[in-house]
Hints:
Number of strands: 12
Radius of gyration: 20 Å
Structural class: alpha/beta
Strand order of the largest sheet: 2-1-3-12-11-4-5-10-8-9
Bound molecules: nicotinamide-adenine-dinucleotide, 3-isopropylmalic acid, manganese (II) ion
Distance between the termini: 22 Å
Number of domains: 2
CATH class of the largest domain: Alpha Beta
Number of helices: 12
Mean pLDDT: 97
Order of helices and strands: EHEHHEHHEEEEHEHEHEHEEHHH
Strand content: 15-25%
Amino acid sequence: MQTYSIALIPGDGIGVDVIDAAWEILNSVAETSGFALKGTEFPWSCAFYKETGRMMPEDGIETLRGFDAILLGAVGWPKEVPDAVSLHGLLLPIRKAFVQYANIRPHRLLPGVQGPLKAEAFDILCIRENTEGEYSGAGGRVHQGMDNEVAVETSIFTRAGVERIIRFGFEQAKARRGKLASVTKSNAQKYSMVFWDEITQKLAREYPEVEVTSYHVDALAARMVMAPESLDVIVASNLFGDILTDLGAAIQGGLGFAASANINPDRAAPSMFEPVHGSAPDIAGKGIANPMATIWSGAMMLEHLGETQAARRIMEALAITTGKGIGTTPGKDTTATITSAVKNALTTL
Length: 349
Ligand code: NAD
Ligand code: IPM
Ligand code: MN
């Protein structure tokens, strides 16, 4: 039987609850789909940092390299470990080391989910650059604590990095409804975003079948609220994509529904699957985290592994569950209730 080795990193806060839930659903679908999942759990988290002084062991990246995929909950416990330490010690190094340059985030309403907008029929795929740009981590501070202190954080946009992500966006648009929104801010950022626009225009010539429009990020944020049905694929830099995908999460009913895949398209290293949301300290330990974003991310993992039918079954089970109104109102159903409803729905398929 085909067995996939999966590295599980629950992380902090509700990350632990949602990974438990998603793992249960993934194994349930595997059992009836003729493949197996072998999970290895890593306790890397802020608690691990407090014990060891590191978010993951020195050879953490090499340990993960041998897995078929990584499923991650959430990283961050700002009350005890500064976010800039925890995220730069675990999540961000994984994305960079494994060249997971395409962060894919789907935004659409599951049946029965009431979003905040009048528009219901939208289906947006946001492709976020995931390894460079504004989150390159290049910079420094001098004269710390003094009146003349300076902090510099430099965005890094490379031709190779920008071309590959915009090309990925064109490919996705070609496979979907043929529309690409390229996110810019070239009216204010006259180097990096002019460069981004030039590469968009250059690649457009290779994809005559794709209708590409460049939108300034501020205008696109408004469009996502006012006319989300006019959008198909969005391609954005790291920071812009980060912000727009929390907006995407909001219009699809909340962060509890927003899934995400950090993909290495060349398959030279494992890809990582995680919800868009964080560790949600405000609800951690209450048992009310919505696991659907993580279960959906698990479906994206199966799709990536080639188990398309099993991935589809998970999405159908999610739709049956939300269609019954389970998990659609924040705080009403527990993580356990939602998980068992999805599991039951799977048995009816
Ligand atoms: P957050 O996403 O954790 O929470 C924002 C709000 O959404 C909170 O009110 C929370 O209760 C709610 N929420 C999030 N997920 C939910 C779910 N599944 N079900 C129900 N409600 C949910 O964002 P934050 O508060 O800005 O960040 C908290 C911590 O998580 C920080 O340390 C932050 O850096 C980290 N973070 C990590 C990731 C990641 O690991 N990928 C992503 C975002 C934030
Ligand atoms: C996300 C998160 C992370 C990011 C943070 C926690 C570093 O917000 O996955 O959207 O910005 O990439
Ligand atoms: Mn984010």
